Queue: 4 jobs
Job 1
Amino acid sequence: MTQRIVLTGANGFVGQAVSRLLLARGDAVTGIVRRPGTVVDGVQAWLLDSDDFGEIETRWPDALRCDTVIHLAARVHVMRDRAIDPLAAYRETNVAGTLRVARAARRAGARRFVFVSSIKAVGESSAGREPISELVPPAPIDPYGISKLEAERALTEFGSRSGLEVTIVRPPLVYGPGVRANFLQLMNAIAKGVPLPLGAVQARRSMVYVDNLADALVHCATDRRAAGTLFHVTDGHDLSVVELARMLGWQLHVPARFISIPPQLLRLAGRVTGRSAQIARLLDELRVDSSHITEVLGWRAPYTVEQGLLETAAWYRATH
């Protein structure tokens, strides 16, 4: 059954993958974006140029009715954040802005709201324990994670009052063609033959290929069993950073090179250079349990890690 779906962040890395999948299903997709000409062909663009979805409740077109909203837009990690109060800035976009979209969506007839949160709403590490499931008490430590958890709780409360079905998805690191930030930096280093000081790092971290995440989000938007649920979504196969680098090197046709430096020395270097958070993301284990979405929806990742990395490397070779 086709649906009318509104997608925030439709022109983004994940948003474009979700758009393509929805269009392939035959759904009518409207993307809320700030710039024209940035959505996938076939998506109806709604240009909303206000910050943090301000005025969305009054500017929502009367003719735009929808069944579901998938909310991807967010204030994500800002390197060298210059905000006077970073937590307040994250809250304005990720909490207040999200609630504005939810209220507007409900008035437009939406019965379901799929909120893309983050595993950082729970924490940064699974060291010393089992992979993080949906039952683990959240303990976010940075403004981004705190704002995502607050948004989850505010949406759940709004849903209970309004009747809006809220479904929350927490992905870990998302990769695929078009990836940016640390993953792209790792690929750049491997492609240039730069020795990586990671030979002694054994910690494993969960990831999710962008098309796997898109598939899970479409299931959450269209399966009645997803109403009112919280899901962690991963590829289902965790790699150490060494395994990841070796697989990327093989796909890039460049052998990954390593130097073995004790993790404690890398942490010390992180403290000295002010990059403790970046170093921790390489050294700390962050394994995520995504079995709940399989149990509830029967969902399984349609692509393996190997397939995801192959597509990512092919994109990199074609564009760099």
Job 2
Amino acid sequence: MPRSDYYDEDGSTVKNQCPRCGDTFLAEHSDREHCGKCGYTEWK
């Protein structure tokens, strides 16, 4: 995936970052975003 999918335009703020872990990305699924490290899920 392109870097722009993970970072804002200025390159400093991480998108889709887990609010619990803070250091992992949320995986994007068709109906949810999920953290593989802690199990946090945001339903769409």
Job 3
Amino acid sequence: MPKAGNGFCFSLCADDYALSPAVSLGIREALTARRLSATSVMTTMAGWHREAHDLRPFHPEAEIGLHLNLTSGTPLGAMPCFAPTGRLPPIGRLIKAAYGRTLPEAEIRAEISRQIDAFIDSFGAAPDYIDGHQHVQALPGIRLWLLETLAEKGLTGKLWLRDSGDSLSRIIMRGGELSKALMVAGFARGFARMAAAHGFACNEGFAGFSAFAPDENYGQAFAHFLTAPGKRHLIMCHPGHCDEELAALDPVTTSREKELAFLLSDDFLRLLDQRKARLSRLAIIRN
């Protein structure tokens, strides 16, 4: 594992690129300032093809991944059972169906394939990694269909996958949004083992759960994210600017601007220096 003095290296990933033009603009600002090491894109969004062009100059210095989306906006193809109205279901309904084993396998497999293809078609390369909007990649059923789809496309071992879980001890030591971290760790249990069995590496250590509250002290929250890092530590974040498209699609709005402001600030750099932490692409961080 690369060292930062006696400290550690970690990956900082901005989720939701292409969710709206303002979100994408904010993420590119953070990439330009070298305050991120990765960003995950939503290929289901109407602006993805245009936004892909503006993202290419940041690669490969930053890793660019697919943010698998099964809960926001519209799918890339018809899903008459899963999304009969043309709109993807909310996360609560998806979790219930996943654990109830009532997900339409063929439809979801096809949508996973379409989203991967849309990434490659617009970006001109396969994603460096895959994660999921609201952590859908880790849900029962979906995780296996994702792994098998990647194998069918010849991508085994050629990218890494986000494990949205972490050990109980690290979650408790880190504090912050404990209920969210514990809930996601619960439905991500076994994901890394399954991924490894299919030939894919994962991060080891995961943080970034936020209250998304306008009055949250994000700098203080970020200090928690750096606590008890794993050997291949990954922190998610959600920076960006707000616009009408974002407000129509997602409840997380003004907190994105606070996250962006912190990442671009000297306070962010001072915190990394205090913790002896350094940004790195996850693919080059070794156990």
Job 4
Amino acid sequence: MEKITFTTTINAPKEKIWKTLWEDATYRKWTAVFSEGSRAVSDWKEGSKVHFLNENNDGMYSIIDKCVTNECMHFKHLGNIKNGQEQPQDETTENWSGSMENYNLTETQNGTQLNVEMDIIAEYKDYFTEKFPLALEKVKELSE
């Protein structure tokens, strides 16, 4: 697995960016870049599960490995969801289960830096390299 990083500076306080990232209405807007109808189901507390779902109720489930409000949200991805149901591990999910996706906010003189670092397997690298900058542009647009 490879680690890739995406960074943007947003002219907004980190509290505003945090809300943009994790509140339902804005989460759906910036993640639509990946899949129209995207949503997340969680209480957003450290140790809780998150279901990342598309409009067909398919997606993946993860656990919130670390959460410090207005500072960081780290996900540990575990497996797939089909028709709203968590699926048992299989050969495909074993390749990426345990991978991390980390969001970190840092205030700077020029605004707030949003840094996203994720573990990625080769078959998804091109997709996320194309889509993540577009998603971060949407976060920036919604936050400023």
